[in-house]
Amino acid sequence: MSKTRIVLPIEGMTCASCAATVQEALAGATGVTSAGVNFATNKAAIEYDAAQTNVSQLIKTVREAGYNCGKATVTFGIVDLHYAPSVAPLERSLSRVNGVIRAVANQATETATVDYIPGVVSAEDLEKAVDAAGFVVAAPIAAEDPLERERIARSREIRTLTWKFVAAAAVAIVAMTGSMLLMADRPMGDNGTMKQVDLLGHLLMPLAIGLRDWVAAQGWSTGSNGDSPSSPSPWSPGRANSSTKGRGAGCGIGPRT
User: Fold this and answer.
1) How far, in Å, CA of 24 to CA of 41, rounded?
2) Which of 29, 89, 194, 210 is the most exposed place for a label (fewest CB within 10 A)?
3) Which of 208, 151, 148 is nearest to 178 (CA)?
């Protein structure tokens, strides 16, 4: 015997007699070992044998008594569900979560829709059930609890800011390295290796520009100086080349005659 306890929100009760009616109906249902209904809180606390009945049957009993149970529905994406041989393992895993009324997975849209009892099932419980079935949720499931929603939102923001920092650091490192190589002093003599340094610098600068363009495509800002699109950018190849030419001409460096 697998004893399970659940608290169901009851809708439609207007007096203590209503609570007694619901309690009597639940206590007489198959598999229910005890049932108590509180009119003040509009909730029913039920202990039942999970091998003989389930949440759906308990809700059906409440409805047959003339009342209803509050429920909520959530739909979330599942990664690569389209390629799964069957959605049955996923639906079974979600249905086993205490408080879940119904779970349906759709391979065409790669989504799962779950009807559940508010306050009994959490977003974390559903995500664990998906993991147990061998699947991965496409994005964190939205939580009903405001505090839980805030926690999830903060976690997403931290992940986004972390990736932005990594991208910005990569752009800065590549740009600084390329600029330093382009501005390096040319070695004197016929056997100098400046050609190799120039080649490396010119290879790094296009890479930095490509990273900058990718960051801009993501909608992230590459600077905070408020430059307009028409103003020349310190990242542009033209400015780097012109500064290099000016430095070479001012120092009198050029091909020997």
Assistant:
1) 17
2) 210
3) 208
